Amino acid sequence: MRGTCTWLLQQQFPDLTTTVETFQLLVDAKRNIAKWVGRAQAHVFRRLSLLRLPAEVLADLETGKLPIKDAEKLGGVPEESLPDVGREARHRGVDYAVNRYHASTGERSRSLLPTEGVKSVTARGATDHHGTR
After folding, report:
1. Is 101 buried (19+), middle (13-18) or exposed (0-12) by CB count in 10 A?
2. pLDDT of residue 114
3. Which residues form the domain of 20?
């Protein structure tokens, strides 16, 4: 499946409709996988993100040196940053490396900092992450 998905995403489609329909097929495939294996879609998406990890990180995962939860955290890092974050993770730990990456880019880690339904308090009162009261 990895090769097929990669090939599909790299194609130059003739029009927007074909592109969107192809992407929808990929999303539907992930949903079907979740149903077939009896797991949540988020679980399937996190596991599929592992396919993007560098070979040395996958080797550590296979040998048990890297726990699956840590590998999933690394799977949320953009591909171009994975070599640097992976090196730092080997020396300082995955949580440190991933949090440092997100702090340096100004990104929030969705896996570590959920915002949905979280209220923040300002001088004007409590608001959700969209700024509504």
Report:
1. buried
2. 41
3. 1-52
Domain match, 35 and 90 both? no
Structural domain total, the chain: 2
Model pLDDT for residues 49-60, shown as the tens digit of each residue: 888 888 888 898
* pTM given for the model: 0.56
Q: Cα separation of 87 and 90, whole Å?
A: 5
Do 76 and 32 belong together in one domain? no
- Name the residue type at position 96: Y
pLDDT in tens, 34-50: 888 899 988 888 888 88
**55-61 contacts at long range (C-beta below 8 A, 24 or more positions apart):** 56/86, 57/82, 57/86
Task: Say whether both 47 and 58 belong to one domain.
Answer: no
Res 130 pLDDT > 80: no
What distance in Å separates the CA atoms of residue 11 and residue 86, rounded to the nearest whole number?
Answer: 29
